[in-house]
Amino acid sequence: MTSTEVQSSQLLFSRPEYEQRLRAHREYMDRHGLDHLILVQPESLTYLSGYMTAGYTSSFAAGVVSRTGDPALLIRHAEEYWYRQTSWCPEPIWWYDGESVAEVLLRGISELGLRGRIGMEGGSWRAPYQLIAAVMDGVPPTCTLVPDCDVSGLRLIKSEEELQVMRRAGEIADKMVQAACDAAVPGITERDLAAHMSAVGIRAGSGQLESGPVSSGAAAKHIHASYTDRVLEPEDLVFIEVDTHSHNYYARCMRSIRLGARGGDVLRKWNDLRALQDEAFATVKHGVSCRIADSIIRDGLRDLGYAENYPNKTFYGLGFMLVPTAYEPIEVTPRSDFLFESGMTLHGYLVLDGLNISETIVVREDGIERLTNFSRDLIEK
């Protein structure tokens, strides 16, 4: 079966969805005066072409968008099976082990007969300075390379087809939080808790994953912890952040689990944090400044005496991401100044003194849709 014979049922999204993405890339080219556009970031290539392999870090691939016709792809021949299984695009230019990435790109430019202004994604782990310099040195005089293109913004607004995939990721995240609630008891190690959560997520339909941060004791008061062999103890606060995906469309959810104690100042503080975040979420809708939600949280923490200067962002973008990418290029901090748009998908989070609460949300015309839907009560066991 050739790529042009891939049936629509085998594609993650519909052909009209991919055709709309191609039009969006050509509109980007129009805005930047480009005759061709070379995509090298794995997310960009998969988003446009459907092509996906778990070997994307070691098997370089590129896509070329021109003013007319289908995209032309440059694919390592060892990935032929995955190309034919996942992409809607025509037969690619194959490259073979022994060719350098620069040689592959220059051969593609030559075989495709590219001329004029050629945009290229640059400045990422996939397109370091050395690669850009080698391609610039090797292109023919009929070409002008523009190596600082960034099309990641084209992925910020999700289609309904994408949101269906992200809803599935949110459902998996909820099951992983429930798994943590069930398994977090004194005597279990953080590592075993993380393993249980991961197993539940995989069985529920997630792609490759770890549990996300799992920590207890002193480490629970700090984000970006990693599970260890520490044994959970009575009176512990346990921090979990599930980080799961469906076809690499991510959903995240933070919760705190309190062992062996109930009520008191900890519960009061949790309820205060939840109320602040609920108030902020209520302002998130299409056309509204991100500053409003951000100020509600920062001013509220200050007024309650919890944090004079809260150090963290309050929202950041989530969506289609491939490691090492950890978030989409949008965030809400005191310096941010943009309007929320319908279809943006965000991780809204609030962390303070070992209490952590977050949701993955979609911005809508009249509010938000939560993609993670676990109870927002403090988990007390």
From TrEMBL:
<protein>
    <submittedName>
        <fullName>M24 family metallopeptidase</fullName>
    </submittedName>
</protein>
<feature type="domain" description="Creatinase N-terminal">
    <location>
        <begin position="21"/>
        <end position="139"/>
    </location>
</feature>
<dbReference type="InterPro" id="IPR050659">
    <property type="entry name" value="Peptidase_M24B"/>
</dbReference>
<dbReference type="InterPro" id="IPR029149">
    <property type="entry name" value="Creatin/AminoP/Spt16_N"/>
</dbReference>
<dbReference type="InterPro" id="IPR000994">
    <property type="entry name" value="Pept_M24"/>
</dbReference>
<feature type="domain" description="Peptidase M24">
    <location>
        <begin position="165"/>
        <end position="347"/>
    </location>
</feature>
<dbReference type="InterPro" id="IPR000587">
    <property type="entry name" value="Creatinase_N"/>
</dbReference>
<dbReference type="InterPro" id="IPR036005">
    <property type="entry name" value="Creatinase/aminopeptidase-like"/>
</dbReference>
<dbReference type="Pfam" id="PF01321">
    <property type="entry name" value="Creatinase_N"/>
</dbReference>
<dbReference type="Pfam" id="PF00557">
    <property type="entry name" value="Peptidase_M24"/>
</dbReference>
